[in-house]
Write a structure and sequence with these properties.
- It is a single chain.
- The protein has 539 residues and is α+β, with helices and mostly antiparallel strands.
- It folds into three domains: 175 residues, no CATH class; 182 residues, no CATH class; 121 residues, SH3 type barrels, CATH 2.30.30.140.
- The chain is globular.
- The chain has a six-stranded mixed β-sheet with strand order 1-5-4-3-2-6, sandwiched between helices.
- Strand 3 and strand 4 form a beta hairpin.
- Helix content is 57%, strand content 6%.
- The longest helix is centred in the N-terminal third of the chain and has 33 residues.
Length: 539
Amino acid sequence: MVVPQVPRALRQFVDDELLRAPLLFDQLIESTRRSAREAMVTMGPLQHAAMAELVQALRAHQSRLAEYFLHSLREQVNAELLQSKPPPPQQRHQPQAWALVDEDEVALDVEMSHTVEAIKSTAEHELLELQTYTSALVGDPDVTRDHNPFRAETFARALWDTAQALPMSRGHQVAFVRYAGPALAQLLRMSYAATTSRLEQQGLEPAAYRTVILPPGARRNRFGETTIAPDLQRMRETMPAPLEGDLSYEGQKPDERPRDQGRNVAGETTTLVDRQAVELVSRLFDAMAADERVPADVGLLISRLHGPVMRLTLRDGSLLDQDAHPLWRFINRLAFEAEMVPDATDPERMQLLRSAQAVVDQLTTEPEQNAGLYRWAMERLENFLSRRLVRRLSAASSHIGALHKLEDTLCAGQTSPSTMHGTLDVAQLDTVPADLLADPQRLPAGAGDGQAWLNQLQPGDWVRMFLQGRWVHAQLLWPGERQEIWLFGDGASDATWAVRRGALLLMHEQALLKTLRQRSIVGSAAARVQEQMVADAAA
């Protein structure tokens, strides 16, 4: 793997900020203890005693907590510089971990999400200004993306890791993050401003946010801001048909010919409607190939369909129905499932692409292109995904049997097992001071909507959830016989999470859990093509 070269100026900036991080943490602990002591004045006896324990622990374990905070910060920043991701908790084909997640466990994630929002709102101006200077450090004069490795999420994750190192109950850890979050937001506001001032004193000229000037009369909404895809039939009606003069390959390199194979096919017909349809479909494939959100390995498979689909366009008038035609459904589903398993070296992803490649090989060799071929391709893909789900359920069968018994125990009102550190341990009970938690046993507001959302989930559905301090793609494997425990599988590893219903309702109410809807890359490509047509007409 090629390690990206980190600009020297950015590396120096990062090292300088990491040297200042210990002082920031000392100030954070002092501010947190002060806030906790102030809150103790209005607390009842039990809450007061629990909070006093927390204040004492922060003083006694400050060195240990600082070590965890700085280690997490350094690890995240270095991963950002190397444009890599921290390894997931568990790689595939290693012994599976079984984690039981309930409301107490999720409470810490909720507080972390609140910390991120507090930092972003409190230091919004300072973050934007610092972004212009970090862009200048890497030579990005238009601020095309955020190059600041010290983002709100980075510090919030470091705080979450620090809470895990606090040798106390989950309730104490939640209380620590709750009182540390606002203090961290205020400290970072001053820290970001001081950092910007130091960079300015060094003579660094900040970058400027790029301004896009639209053509006169053009709408302000840009690609990607709407979920309504353009109508391909209407686009075809206004699509300029390729002219005869455009059909020559003279002077063109052989590897550039696929770019114009639509015009080559268009030359085989004299019907204006067909020529327009071929031009539109060809442009759609060009736009999909240019879509940066489509992984390279998936994009390569899709591009191989360009030639066959040109012939299909002349024989199938329903091709321009992007929501129903099996060709577009196959492309969208393949891209979505590959996105759920993002690591290109993951065995599950490689197996998915090998299966898709075999299907594409068959499609490209068929001389007679028709919709039935792509219905067959869609069926093959669905069958593969069904078999993959069955394999994962089989691997988790022993867990599911144990969870079924655990559901009976929980529904009978017996003692809940420990969720300390997220590891299921029936023998060890975690004593959580209930007064420190935000009434975790109470169903959250809007629980009725959350329950309705849970009821519509089916095995195999993908969700995005904020769990154990990070956003994950998780697939529902088993919804529980009594729907008290739901088993999810990580999309990036073999890790599984058994999540209690109350925890799911709390996450849904806090916008930390949602269904992942399949993105239409065909619809996105159509929006790009339409945008270009509008720009060409205005020119």
